[in-house]
């Protein structure tokens, strides 16, 4: 399903995104090194064993990015003018290598754009859940979307 236009959304619309993704060691390693994040919790098995987690902890910025990526196809693909911001990003549970993620989204607010009459602002709440349906990441995303007309 392609993303929807501003005027196709209603407050309260909910989507259970179909794509699921199992997090791999390669995902975590590449993302951490690409972003120059040398945190031993993400890269050093022995250091991670000594932590309160007892194992490698997946980089939380990867977790956040995966959440946004899993939501795009159903929300803003092909209709996005610009992402205006991400707010209230929280990671209430850890993500470990081998966890399988899925996402859900809800429209929280719709606003007319004052500067762009051909577009409007949709605020989504996105949640990423693991295989036990525990929320591992949540955020609000404000997106400027084109109108269908």
UniProtKB/TrEMBL annotation:
Pfam hit, one: MaoC_dehydratas
Annotated ranges, domain MaoC-like: 11-121
Matching CDD domains: FkbR2 (cd03451)
Protein name: MaoC family dehydratase
